Amino acid sequence: MKIPHPIPYQGSKRNLASQILRFFPDETNRLVEPFAGSAAVSIASAYYFKADNFWINDINEPLIRLWEKIIDSPEFIIKKYHDIWLGQIGNEEEYYYKIRSLFNENHQPEYLLFLLAKCVKAAVRYNSNGAFNQSPDKRRKGRQPKNMRNDILRVSQLLKGKTKITSLNYEAVIDNLDANDLVYLDPPYQGTGKNGGFRYYEDVKFDDFITSLFVLNKKQIPFILSYDGRTGNKVFGKALPNELNLIKFELDAGRSSTATLHKRKQNTYESLYISECLNEKITAQGISNQYIESLTLFD
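The structure assignment produced for this chain is given below.
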């Protein structure tokens, strides 16, 4: 049975989650995602019993309200999504824009779920005023209600009663962690914040983020970071400081859709960094030796 994923989200680590979980230490008490998005790693961790408790956080408050409904009130959001989805039949494009306008007025979570299921490439985009402005995918109606229902119920079963859900700045989350936590960080790629080429909900300043990583190191809080990557020889993202003492790996994310569009056969590789204290922990447990040899390791 596949791992459930009710929230489609461009940039989700759904397909890489199984590789990321290999770096988890034994007996992880709480997994914390300060940039949760689709919470793919938290869901996979619960599915494979890799953590006992979870903290899902995202600065996008409507998204967090949606997570609250999915986890704690699944029947409510299932019914709402079913009714909204049926309402589009025969008038799909105009209906989508109507729902988008309603969401931008009241930020109701059921409207956001429909937009995420229906928008182009599940790519979340907001304009400079914070309004959702992505267009609909005209080729499809969005995920069928019965399929959405199954995933929502299964995620609720996995996370209900053991998940903290907040909408805070990531720095506030990091300030409230200790060495018993494991942190998975998946910030927006550089250049894709509000001042970048695409508009997401939050603009993460590079220097501020680096400071937060140093704080995690100082507090001996183990963390895993998805940050930059490459396609062929093209590298994305500003290099992280060597002083962070991070260990870098490359995860094969599969064929690049952009390269394929330009008739090039190239795979995208996403960089994964683990903190020094996490590396010491998993090495002592004998977790990393065999698996890490199968990945591309950078000194």
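Interim note for the steering committee: Residues 259 and 283 are 37 Å apart (CA to CA). The first helix runs from residue 17 to 21.
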